[in-house]
Amino acid sequence: MSPRKKKRKKSSNGFIDLLNAFLTLMVLGILGAGLVLFMGTQRFYAEGSTSQDTVFTVERGVGLSTIAAKLEIAELVADRWTFQLGAMAQRKQSAIRAGEYRIVANASMADILKEITEGRAVTYSVTIPEGFTSWQAVQRINAAENLGGEITEIPAEGTLLANTYSFERDADRQTIIDQMSQTMEEKVAEIWAGRAPDLPIQNAEELVILASIVEKETGIASERPEVAAVFVNRLNKGMRLQSDPTIIYGITNGEGTLGRGLRRSEIEAQNPYNTYQIDGLPPGPISNPGLEALNAVAHPADIDALFFVADGTGGHAFAKTYAEHQSNVARWRLIERERAEAAEEEALAEAASARDALQAEQANSE
After folding, report:
1. Are residues 205 and 112 in the same domain?
2. Is there a domain that residue 23 lies in?
3. Nearest to 144 by CA among 169, 163, 161, 120
4. How much helix, strand and coil, in percent to the nearest 5, is found in the chain?
5. In a domain, 93, yes or no
6. What pLDDT is stored for residue 355 in this prediction?
7. Mean pLDDT taken over the chain
8. What's the rounded Cα separation, in Å, for the pair 76 and 106?
9. How many domains does the chain have?
10. How far apart are CA 149 and CA 174, in angstroms?
11. Residues 245/239, Cβ–Cβ less than 8 Å
12. By CB atoms within 10 Å of each CB, which of 128, 173, 214, 342 scores lowest?
C-alpha cells in the first residue's frame, strides 16, 4: 500500500513544481515586459539631444519605418524602434502627413510624433503686388523657389487677385495660379453685387477694366476713390479717359515696363488701348487690380473732378475745370524742373569732389 501512496505524491509534487515554474516565468515575463515598457516610455518621452531647431521633411507616400530611420540618421530620435513602437502604440502610424516640419531643440520622440501628425508644416510665400500684369505674375511664380511644376500659359489679364499666397514645399505652381483666379472671381462677384447705383459700366468685366486703370494711375490707396471718380465722371460726360498707362500696355502687352516716358508719336498712334484715341474703356484690363482699386470703382468718391496730375508729394492734384488743371500741370512741371536742376547740381558736385580727390592724391604722390 505505502509504495503506491509515495508514487502518487511524487506525481503531484512534479505537477506543482511545473506549475510553479510556469507561473514564475510568467511573472518574470510580465515584469520584464513592464520594465521594457517603462524604459521605452521613459525613452519616448525623454528630452531629445538636439541643441537647435531643425527642419525635417516627410516625403509624400513614405511609411513609418522609413520616417523613423530618417529621424535616427538625423539624430532627432535616439533609436528608430522606440519611435516606431511609440507611434504604433498611439495608433498614429497612418496619421503622419507629408511636409516640412520645424522640430524644436530638445524635442522628445513624443513631441516629434505630435508635430508630424498634428502640427503645421513649414510654409513659404510668394507675393504678387497689386497692378502686376498676368505675365509679371507668372514670371514671379515660376521664379519662386520651393514650388513644383511650371506655368506655361499666361492667364487672361485681370483674372488674378494680387496678394501674398502661402504654400508648402513642392506645391504645384499651377495650383497657386488657380487659387488666385478663383479668389479673384469670387471677390469681383461680391464687389459687383454691392456696387453703387448708376455707374457707367455695364458688367463685372468692365469693373475690372476700369479698376486696372485706377490701379496703375496711383499707388496711394486713399486717393483711389478720387481717381476712380475722375474716370467715372469722364465716362458719364462722354469724355475720353486719356490714361497714359493704357497706352503703355498697348505697347508692352503687359510684358514688363516701358522704362521711359511716352513719345508724342505713341500718344497720337491708333491703338485699341490708347484711351487718348478711343472712346470709353479699352478692350480689356491692363493689370490685375487689387481689392482697393476694385472697391474704389464700385464706390467712387463723390467729387466733380475731371482731371488730375502729380503734385510732387507722390499723390495727385485734382481739378474740375481745364483751367484749374492747367495751373496744376504748370506747378508740377516747375517741380520737375527744380528736381532736374537739383539732380544736375548734385551730379556736378559729385564729379567735382571726385576730381578734387584725384588731384589731391596725385599731388601728394609727387
Report:
1. no
2. no
3. 169
4. 55, 10, 35
5. yes
6. 58
7. 85
8. 9
9. 3
10. 7
11. no
12. 342
Q: Amino acid letter at 178?
A: D
User: Does residue 195 sit within a domain?
Assistant: no
Note whether 223 and 287 are same-domain residues. Answer: yes
Pairing outcome for strands 123-128 and 99-103: unpaired
Q: Are residues 230 and 276 in the same domain?
A: yes
pLDDT given at position 234: 96
The DSSP H or E segment spanning 165 is: strand 163-168
For 78-87, 140-149, 232-241, which range has the lowest pLDDT when averaged over its residues?
78-87
* Residue 176 contacts residue 128 (beta carbons within 8 Å): no
Write down the pLDDT at residue 356. 60
Residue, of 32 and 171, whose pLDDT is higher: 171
> Which is more confidently placed, 184 or 357?
184
State the DSSP string of 267-322: HHS--TT-TTTSSSS-SS-SS---HHHHHHHHS--S----EEEE-SSSSEEEESSH
Rounded CA separation 215/358 (Å):
48
289 in the same domain as 247 = yes
Residue 343 structural domain: 321-366
From the list 194, 221, 192, the residue with the least C-alpha distance to 209 is: 192
Q: Could you tell me the pLDDT band of residue 29, with boundaries at 50, 70 and 90?
A: low
Same domain, 206 and 253: yes
pLDDT bracket for residue 1 (50, 70, 90): very low
Task: Answer yes or no: do 213 and 265 share one domain.
Answer: yes
Q: Percent of the chain at pLDDT above 90? A: 40
Sign of CA dihedral 24, 25, 27, 28: positive
Confirm whether 169 is domain-assigned. no
Identify the sign of the CA torsion 340, 345, 351, 357: negative
| DSSP, res 158 | T
Q: Is 246:273 a contact under the CB 8 Å cutoff?
A: yes
We report the CATH number of the domain holding residue 104 as 3.30.1490
